[in-house]
Amino acid sequence: MRKPFSILLLVAYLAILAMSFYQANSAAVPSLKLVPSGIVYARKGQRLEFACFSESSQNIPKWATKSDTKFPSGVFQDQQGRLIFPANTECHSGIYTCQLSNQDGSVSKNVILVIDLSKHVDVDVQPKSAKVLRGGTAILFSNINGTQSKECEWTRMGAGLPYHHQTYGPFLILRNVQKSGEYYTSTVSNNDGIGQDSVQLHVDDYPSAKISPSNRIALRLLKSETKDVSCNGAGKPAPSVTWIKVGGSIDPSLVSGVSLKFRNPKQEMAGIYECHVSNAYGNVSARLQVDIAVTSILPGFDNSNPNNAAYGAFIGSALRPSDNHEINIKIKPTKVHDGLIIFQSNGFAENTPSTMHYISLGVKDRHITFYYSSGPQSSPAGISGKVVYPLIIQEGKWYHIVAKYERGWSSVVVNGGTPAFTFGSFLGKSTTIDLSSWIFLAGLSDLSQNPLFEVPYGFSGCISQLSFNNKQIDLSKPVESHQMDKCGAACEGDQVCRNGGTCQKFAQDESYFTCRCRDKYYGNYCEKMYSATINPCSRSPCLNNGRCIANGKQHYCLCPMPYYGLSDCGEVKQLNDNDIPYFQKYSYLLYSVNIINEYQQIQFEFNALNLEGALYWIGQKSEGKYLYIALIKSRLELRLHVNGRENYLISSQNIVTGKYYQVNVTRSYSSIKMFVDNFEAQLSKSSNLGPSRLAVNSNYAYIGGAPDISAKTENRLSSGFSGQIRNIQLQGIIFTPVDAIYGVNIGKR
Q1: Pick from 612, 615, 595: which is nearest to 604 by CA?
Q2: Which tens digit of pLDDT belongs to each residue from 673-720?
Q3: What kind of architecture, by CATH, is found in domain 300-459+468-486?
Q4: How far from the centroid of its chain's Cα atoms is residue 510's Cα?
Q5: Can you tell me the distance from the alpha carbon of 49 to that of 98, in angstroms, rounded to the nearest whole number?
Q6: CA-CA distance, 651 to 723, in Å (whole number)?
């Protein structure tokens, strides 16, 4: 059909006006964009939107007509700067100008609207409010009325489509969507005319969390210093940010919005803090380690002057008399002379040197010497003896000494060298040594009571890491001392941190240090061990920003891809397109794809390791609208839940482990069917779900499980799926592990 001549004249006239207007504004900034642009044909009664924006400016543009008169009746500009035509009439034809101004000048562009009564190609792009997660897949559908053959062309922001976007007739499939606010236009033509419609695509974001300035800080104990740490939570919709302290309660005075503010450091501030960031799509966490730096605790003594009496006394083990004893100690002589290093006995008041029981280490003639006695003149008669280690000790060096007494035999090892022994026959004599008094270091409170006449003085130097009969002695807490000073620099010789902990100097003040403890240990010096009765997450076992979940005395980790491992997130499982994801009860993959006209298609294959768990979940739990597919008691169930009412289907066959099953689900509004290996599932319960528009819609779906799956399934399920899921298709589109927006505990087999 030929176009009416009057329409052609109108188009030509408007084009000439547009060209002259453009030339008069040749200084226009090219970043200003119109969608749609050029000449737009529309039918009478059709709703239109013209979008005008600049990527280089946040200012709101202003629309005007060519003659700068008021808009025709019904036409208006909204708060986003869009020009809205609720229902076109023939008087709406004309030139519309979008102008944007800033301090550097102004720029304008025109669009020509032609209301052509002869056109009958009606185009309606669906969905009108398209939304996906960043990196997700969007599907747009050009709904075209009429019966004649049609040609459909899609454009993005008035230009061509990127290579990774695909068109299939009236469908446009957008993969890996990144940018929000872009307009997509469908232009349809046939022998009778042209029609257009546009939609704006909005992009949301899965939450993310980042600790700033660092995820590990150290604070000096009792110093007047401050430290602020922020949790930078991002996402769309805007996420909530919550701080917790792992294994304990957080001091409310530390929390200020999304930040923790540490003032005047105290011991109780030490620990693991987690920042939880959540929005409608999920939750993530980031971890902060707070260490309290302390000064060196190594006791030091100076007994080089015979008139000195420097010593420290400590409470020893409450032991019964025994014929097995062990001393494990590290020393660094600052001056080498004869003297006591350590001494423990059964007391001075009731004993003489010949009846006293004792274990002792000393320095004699520059050799480490081990002394022991079970009271030769006590009743029953005991023994006494010594072991001299052949190594000559020197000033300023550390020596690790292990001395053992076993039923009268004794040995000494220094710095892991060859042991020195004593042997003998003790027939008829007691080899049991009773140690019940304090442990004395570097001397005695009264050296005149010293039974070891050959070492009459105290020791001069540093002492570290003392354990007596396998019990660690806290050298920072003497019950009595005299002239006991701190000795050595922080982390000197790695002599401070216990139980395999690693000592690190405080960067701003090397007289302070912190200990990085091995698993199961904590405290300033790694001197404490986590009890099995406390929260198993207290020791923060999940690495790589994994989230720890306590399960009685056990725990499991929620590990973000590509990290893996229920116990610690310590493995890396980088999945490729061709890999088959492996799920292990607390796993899931999150995909983003929108639904059009309440139609939904789900297809996948699964191979189960156990016969309980969720395989698929979609919906809005807060609105009471969701759909899920799960293994329950060896059957596959599908439940469609809307506002407290539900329909559910159940597979006709029992599912067994070690075999792949194909699942195919189609839903149109509230009508739904499920096939398992081509066998249709039985309708087990049917409810009137109300108007079709109440059916479940969502722009994201979980595969293999979901966060908080128990709450999402009305407590019918406690976990996700265990096994493999492959050949995933949503809305007819193939999805691989690489297409996932987010994943937790995903492995591969």
Answers
A1: 615
A2: 999 999 999 887 666 555 444 456 678 999 999 988 999 998 999 999
A3: Sandwich (2.60)
A4: 32
A5: 13
A6: 19
